[in-house]
Design goal:
The chain is mainly alpha-helical. It contains 3 helices and no strands.
């Protein structure tokens, strides 16, 4: 191949190998399927964790409401609703703040490296 035809290219062109192309496509398709399956499983796991957190907050809210009903005389239902919401929102908000802080730190670290 002449110097003029290869100028500007990192490597000279080679003839494509159909067997390698097909193998690469099949490997990419398998990797895509595995990735999609992992994403679906993680999405399901995320919903399970959210549901478990909500159930635990409701149970803890009921315990707090039961204790407050006996100690202070507050009505059970409103106390249960407020306590459950607080027990779900406060830890969740703290977790979200920590995740965002970690993401910002990672972004700053990557921008300082490059």
């Amino acid at each position: 191949m002449s110097r003029r035809r290869t100028q500007g290219r990192a490597t000279p062109r080679t003839k494509p190998n159909p067997k390698l192309d097909r193998a690469d496509r099949e490997a990419a398709e398998r990797a895509h399927e595995v990735t999609q399956r992992a994403i679906r499983r993680l999405d399901l796991l995320e919903w399970v964790v959210w549901g478990a957190g909500a159930i635990m907050a409701m149970v803890a809210g009921a315990v707090v409401a039961w204790a407050m009903e006996g100690l202070v005389g507050w009505s059970f239902r409103p106390t249960w609703m407020v306590a459950s919401m607080l027990l779900f929102v406060i830890p969740g908000g703290a977790a979200i703040i920590k995740i965002r802080k970690d993401e910002r730190a990672e972004t700053n670290r990557n921008s300082n490296d490059g």
